[in-house]
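Page 42, continued from yesterday. The earlier attempt failed because a stray header line got pasted into the input along with the sequence. Redoing it now with the clean sequence only.
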Amino acid sequence: MHGKSVSESAIIDQVVEVFPNDLNPHGTLFGGRVMQIVDSLAAIVAKRHSGLVCVTLGIDSVRFLSPARRGDILVCKASVNRTWRTSMEVGVKVIAEDFRTLEHKNIFSAYFTFVAIGDDEKPIEVIPVVPETPEQMLRYKQAEMRRQARLSVKSS
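This time it went through. Structure tokens are written below.
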């Protein structure tokens, strides 16, 4: 089975504006709203890579790094870091851009694991991902390390 490059399914610079109804009582973006946005984007990346329906299996290393505020523009990035037989890891990063100053700050990062499923709703094999850049190769290697850590906890 031949592979597909990371760039063929990646989402780079998807933008979403923070509206008043996205804010908590502190005037910052609800964490759940960020999760909703990034889960949807990660699922699209997984579908684009595999050409299959994919469901979220888990989310690792969720980090809320800094708050976003009303009017900020969220710049989202998501790409497949690694694939295994029926699953794949999609890394997501969100940057908040102040539209007045164009200042950027990292606000969120996480790793989503998706499983591809067939019409019978059973896991189905996915095509490999082919990392091309040094950064993609590093994420590929780190994804396997995260997977091994998850599996070692699971078997304990």
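Notes: The longest strand covers residues 104-117.
Reminder to self: strip header lines before submitting.
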